[in-house]
Amino acid sequence: MGNAYSTTPQNKLRFSVSKKGNGSKVWVNAWSETQMAMGQVNKMPFEGNKAQNQMQDMLDLLLPQYVNKQ
């Protein structure tokens, strides 16, 4: 994804929450990115069943904590 001159790769998650009927719908996107020496940002999405299952597990853990704070 990078080379000796790039920054250390960072893993990033983006959660989007929307109301849907009496409930809500949540989307999550995950990727790893690094910035090259001349400023170009290279991104690599996390795809596949294992990554999707891990993100779902994270949502299942974090969402009740978030909802209870509201």
Automatic annotation (TrEMBL):
Stated name of the protein: Uncharacterized protein
Taxonomic lineage of the native organism: Bacteria, Pseudomonadati, Pseudomonadota, Gammaproteobacteria, Pasteurellales
